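Title: Prediction job returns without error message
Component: structure pipeline
Severity: low
Priority: P3
Assignee: unassigned

Description:
Job completed but the reporter wants confirmation the result is attached to the right record. Sequence as submitted:
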Amino acid sequence: MITTKKGNLRLKEVQRKVKSKLGLREINPRPHFLGVGTQKGGTTTLYQLLKKHPEIHLPENKEIHFFTKYYDRGENWYRSQFKDAPAGKIRGEITPYYLFYAAAPQRIHRFRTDMKIIALVRNPIERTLSQYFHSYRLKRETLTLEKALAAEQERLNGIEEKILVHGGNNLSYQEHSYVSRSRYETQLERYFNFFGKENVLVLRSEDLFDGNRNAVIAIQEHLELAPFPKDTVIPRANQGFSESDKVSQKIRERLKGEFQATFRWMKETLNIEWNT
């Protein structure tokens, strides 16, 4: 018997309703999916959108950070974040640091091999600038933009290797990784290697920001959800203050050169591109 995608989604919906009625759920529940990033790429918009779907349960705290900053708290602590999830609901959480944090994919795979992954990727130039101004606004950065970009490599030197071996956290790794966080090819390849490309949904942040319904449909299909209610509006959350509009063309051209390999990889591997 051939099962169509639409028929399969309907079957999943029926199964969830049966589980809900019978109260069937893991005793200490785990999430079924993770939104892994990117930072300044619309993960708050994704969180607010998914909260609207009747089949999804998300913790009230958007960013749990278990697979990054709080891994030493243990699996039982993490599972407790989902203790209020009703039976029959698809459980998930969204922490944008998961995409960049080098040890996260392996930790996630060890926890659940069939985890569904959603990654939002924004134009690397705009994401880099947005992160800098976000950090500067919150006083986590004291250097000017040009000096911060020039200092990044020295600030991050050797830290990723330590993260992979020993875990832990580092202020510059999390806050001053402007260009590094925009090199999606390295980060996404880690997830493809552990979960398979078919289990990692990669979407342009700009499509979600613009209310592109195809992005919503892609999320529905990836998580095997019934369609979102027709009146669902895609929110636009955590908009910046347009500081990047004043960045000089010289700096933008420099960043464009920095990201040539990223732009090429995204186009060739995922058919994702941006106007630059």
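Comment from assignee: result matches the submitted record. The mean pLDDT is 92.
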